[in-house]
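anyone seen this seq b4? input:
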Amino acid sequence: MINLKSLEKLKKCVVPLKSRSLIKVVGSDALKHLQGLTTNNLNRLKDSQSSNSSIYNGFLQSNGRLLFDSIISLDKEHSIKQKAEFVISNGNGNGNGNGVVDSFIIDIDNAVLNDAVAHLKQYKLRNKIDIIDVTDQYRVYSILDKTYKTVRNDELLSILEDEGCSVMSDPRHQIMGVRLLVPSNKSSSIENHLAKYETMDEEIYHLFRLSQGIPEGRNEYQWGSVIPLEYNFDLLNGVDFHKGCYLGQELTSRTQFTGLIRKRVFPVVMKVDNVESPSVMDEAIVDPNKPPKESLLFPKRILNSLNDHPHPEPNSVLSVKNISPTHKSTPIETSDTVKSGEPQSLKSGSRSQDKFLFGKRSLGLAMLKVENIDIFQLDNTVIHDNQGREVSLLPPSWLTKLGDKMTPQQVS
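predicted toks r here
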């Protein structure tokens, strides 16, 4: 059981992420190798010349389905060593800047480590690279701070950098705070610097992430069966549509070009009566560059449901209806549709159905038809699970980006 008292006033915390593994790809062809396998443009990461940068990526199979998600950053230790060698070489008149060896750190879910290494090696061919599991050499931390103050705390970040940490804003959205890659031999001293933050269990990180509509890892992405744009890679800075060819590009590019993204993953929570505000829109991020109005990590509608309202079964069908007076389209009633207040046992069949995908406690992610989502008033979307229980649609962190992508062509 989560101690709700410990979360009632929680605005910021630090979380050790033990569920993450790290792969180093190093060599003169490292950039070329990864650039041909990822949905994002790693040239932007290298061109920034900053060890404080990171990029959100997907690795696809040849048919365009997602294998695994990742956060890729420059290997800070390698970058520092290479710069020192370059300076020495130039100082002796022996260097011309050629023969640069790149090194990247790929941050992934533990559950995909072996498959990820195998995937990277499968396409190695003659590329001059080494692919190394360096999970034991680092510890990964997430600093969650809904006030955004940590993101702008230059003094703290400078201290962490001086200690040899890779410090980076989470590339998916500012709401996810700061990620740290800490050398294992420095973890004790780093924890002293982070003492002003309450240390929380990793479950808190995952609950917060789910509440913001950000999927992560094998349980939520279903290896080899997911279309990246339905899982909001375009809204979470995970795709570069101008980078050129990469494995599996065709499906992603065609989906973007045609605009036919009829379904997306949204965050949901089991509905409770005792809430801070009657409208979920009061908890939405209005301006992505400014802290949200509600600065607690978990508002009341989430806190009061965490312990006593378990989420629906994974892959169970949901009944979704838009009750807005201006809504033109009504979902077609079928024998598989759950009617309000009438619990039914349903089988998950067609991809066209609204479904609950994955959850922890009362929170989770649902794949919903965008035609039933009123992005300007989420409360107009009424959802019931297969037991007839009401489910609340939460405002995702990327909500403001969705407005430009909800065109009639997309939801026809």
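The chain has two domains: 4-211, 259-405. Residues 93-97, 330-349, 407-412 have pLDDT under 50 and may be disordered. kinda curious what u guys think
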